[in-house]
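Board notes (copied after class):
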Amino acid sequence: MLSDLSVLENVLLPRQIAKTIDTAEKDARDLLKAVGLEDQMYKRANKISGGQSQRVAIARGLINTPSIVLADEPTGNLDSVTSETVVQLMKSMAKKLNQTFIIVTHERQQFGDVDRVITIKDGKAFEGDQPLEMEVLA
């Protein structure tokens, strides 16, 4: 997050860099509404809470509709209600925009039914009880 920018400006930044600004502001507003921050759009990034910052980062990560989203503990600093909102947002975006989300989490149960779960334990990858033939770098 760039602290001198507003929440909305932070979400718009990737679109400005990509020079795809045609519907950028509407898309950014929609994403901020989806993560429950429509009332924080014009606040400076350094004036919102840590959990709100995390939701802004999620919206910013989704603004360019990437085909693959890597999310490291996306609900780590969020309360349970906001966490559920963020999980549902990621699931709906995955379906609506045919996106793949690769999520690293210690809260597996929070994500409910998903297409695939790979667990890493002691440097080995497993799908269910079956070891996967892949090297895990620790």
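Comment from the instructor: The chain has a mean pLDDT of 87. Helices lie at 7-18, 24-34, 50-62, 80-96.
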